[in-house]
Design brief:
Length: 110
């Protein structure tokens, strides 16, 4: 009878050990599942943050390039006005310059 009790105790220990292994295995699987979920959540958050930052960056670029475009337009207008002013000045003095050149070319110094 003692050997029956001993074997029954051993059997109970083996069963308890199997149950403990099963519990540990389930816990590991749950842990791995949770780690995968946490990783996926983190990746989604990173993508969302990245897209928000990219949108803010693009908005800032479009705002600054818009003012840059108006600066370019203003500078083009100023340049055109200065070119026109120089052309007018040149046309006013061109006859005097031509006369002065002819005088110096045709005057002979002895």
């Amino acid at each position: 009878m003692d050997s029956m009790k001993g074997q029954g105790g051993i059997q109970m220990l083996l069963t308890a050990e199997q149950e403990a292994r099963q519990i540990i295995s389930n816990a590991k699987n749950l842990k791995l599942t949770r780690l995968k979920q946490a990783k996926e959540e983190a990746e989604r958050e990173v993508k969302l943050y990245h897209s928000n930052m990219e949108a803010a960056h693009q908005k800032k670029i479009s705002e600054t390039s818009g003012s840059s475009g108006s600066n370019v337009k203003r500078l083009d207008e100023e340049t055109a006005m200065r070119i026109q002013s120089l052309k007018e000045s040149a046309s006013r003095v061109s006859s005097d310059v031509v006369a002065m050149l002819i005088k110096h070319v045709t005057t002979v110094k002895a």
